[in-house]
Every structure is written in structure tokens, then in C-alpha cells.
Amino acid sequence: MEYLGHKLRHEYKFYINTFLYHKLRKRLSHVLQKDPNMKDNEGYLISSIYFDDMYQSAMNDKLNGTRFRKKYRIRLYDRNDRIIKLECKSKYNHYISKEWAPLTREEYDSILNGDYEFLISRKEEVCRNLYAAHKTKVLRPVTVVEYQREAYVHEYGNVRITFDKNISASIGSLDIFDPDYELVGVNLQNMMVLEVKYDDYIPSHIWKLIQGGTMIQCAISKYVMCRDLNRKVRIL
Fold first, then answer.
1. Which of 92, 174, 183, 235 would give a disulfide with 168, using CB separation of 3.0 to 4.6 Å?
2. Where does the record place the VTC domain (predicted)?
3. Number of C-alpha atoms within 13 angstroms, CB side, residue 35?
4. Fold adopted by 2-235
5. DSSP one-letter code for 116
6. How far apart (Å, rounded) are the C-alpha atoms in residues 28 and 16?
7. Inter-residue contact 133 to 53 (CB < 8 Å)
8. Mean of all residue pLDDT scores within the chain
9. Which residue ranges make up each domain of the chain?
10. What is the pTM of this model?
């Protein structure tokens, strides 16, 4: 399925407790394959630097339940600069699409230092759109969202099921490579986030495995969680 030239995927999010996590993990491991990027059973570390503009559009659109919205972020894995991505994630109700472009460490440093000029010469549309948003709406990095992701995949339907654990927000520096980079954990009261993504369909036997427990489907945003935690830390 496509919308405005972008491929769409289904996305559903649930809060689950630790008991259900272990139950689902055992079930899924017999049917799906582990993400090849997982170095061990606990998964891999994702660090995302999120952007927002002078109007706090990304925050407000999410809180207001705006049907069509987008967020820009820089994403790294295991705090390593080998792979750095600039991403724009668009949301259309329960559908998502994603555009991305690779960044070098030097380009990453430039953006963190407020220099976006190199984006003009990049061929990727997501780069030029970020530059335009920075110039017109003062789009800039506002928080880092970090968590451990345990992921399972299935080729039919391009299914991807993930457990996002130990969600944390940055305090102070937004540069993941800064020696003074610090995090504070988000208190989910022994809960974690289960995400289910697929293209046009999900095999029925996989969906039945997921539905075999009590789950709370929510419009979950790890970004909003971390922005709220940032605000509380500043107040304290």
C-alpha cells in the first residue's frame, strides 16, 4: 500500500507486563526468526535524537491525536558511529512510512553544532526537508530517546515484532558521544512496549500468538514519554 508515493506499513503498539513478555517471547521464538542485528537475546541498543520546532509541533500533534503527522530523528545503534541515519517517520492513522538517509560522523557533528548547510547539497529528499524545516520553523534536536530493542521477524508480510525495554531520556547533552551524556530511566512500573509492524498482511497464526494475552493497545510515544520526563527533571 502507498500514500503520496510512500510505502505504508501497519503499526500497532501495546503496553505489556513482564509476565506476558516472557510468555510471548517464548511463543514467538518458535515461529519467528531473531533479528540478525541482535548480538544476544536481550537485543540491541537504539539511541534516537528527536527534533521539534519552535511550535512544538511533533509534541502537540501526538498529544492532540493528529491523524497525519511526522517526526525527524537521528538514529544510532549500540552508541556506535558506524551506522548513523537521518530519518523522517510519517504517521497516517495506523499506518507508517519512513524515509531515511545515511549520515557521516562529521555530518552528525555538524547538525548537533547547529550547522545544517551541507543538507542542501544532499540528493535525499529527507535531508532537504529537514533543512527547510530548520530554516522556517527552527526545527532542532530536543531530546534523546534510548532503549533496548528485542526484535523478531517473519518474511511473509514482512512482519516485525519488537519488545522495547529500559526506555530512557537524555538529560543535559544531546550528543550521544559527549563524555557528559547522561540518561534517566522512564518509570513504566514494570511495563514495556510491544510493537507489531507489517506490510499488507500478517499471517493469522502469528496474530493469534500475539493476542493470546491481556494487552493494552495505546497510541504510545516513547518521544512524548521522554519529553515529559525532561520537563519533570527540569522542574526538580
1. 183
2. 9-226
3. 18
4. mRNA Triphosphatase Cet1; Chain A (3.20.100)
5. -
6. 15
7. yes
8. 92
9. 2-235
10. 0.94
* Each residue's pLDDT tens digit, 108-123: 999 999 999 999 999 9
Name the residue with cell 516513547.
Answer: 222
Residue 137 grid coordinates: 520553523
Q: What are phi and psi of 65, to 5 degrees?
A: 70, 30
Residue-wise pLDDT for 16-66, tens only, equals: 999 999 999 999 999 999 999 898 889 999 999 999 999 999 999 999 988
Q: Tell the burial category of 225 from Cβ atoms under 10 Å away from its Cβ (0-12, 13-18, 19+).
A: buried
Is 139 in a helix, a strand, or coil?
coil
Q: What percent of the chain has pLDDT over 70?
A: 95
Beta bridge partners of 80: 77
Nearest to 73 by CA among 53, 49, 90, 57: 49
